[in-house]
Amino acid sequence: MARVLLLHSMYGLRPAVHQAADRLRAAGHEVHVPDLYDGRVVGTPEEGIAIKEELGRDELLKRAVAAAAPLSAGGLVYAGLSLGAALAQNLALADEQARGLLLMHGTSDMADDASADGLPVQLHVADPDTYEPADWLNAWYLRMRRAGADVEVFPYPGAGHLFTDPGLPDHDAEAAERAWSVALGFLAELDPRD
Q: Taking the complete model, does pTM exceed 0.90, yes or no?
């Protein structure tokens, strides 16, 4: 099964992240959930944005790289929730051995010269997503396809941004169940490199 690095959202390493990791582990995957916020967990988007800005994008990416480094030999599936998805995308596009990219609730901007030759990518996102401009999904999809990624997008009409987190107002149990079921199928198809 897959070795997965699951990166948390701007809310920090909440119980929902551990629940997601446990769900993936129950399906036989090896899952690692680093704490990029040094134990801080918040309850509002404003608090999450404040920590993200305090640490800065470069520091968060540095922490994510440090978490991935000892795990990446032989191929790693990068996964993330919202902010964690953006970081996971950056890591996967920089890792020639990446086995896959599972994005929940977000993506990252990417350079036009990025390369993702054949990288399996799955995105689960609210439709519309209140954290993104109206045309972001088409632009992101086209850039990923031009980079060579094998992209699947699963929109969830009417769901809130972090619809898989049962501890947040955005939670949508039906959409969350559907998303995790599809994601488990995606991970099951990825053969790890030994």
A: yes
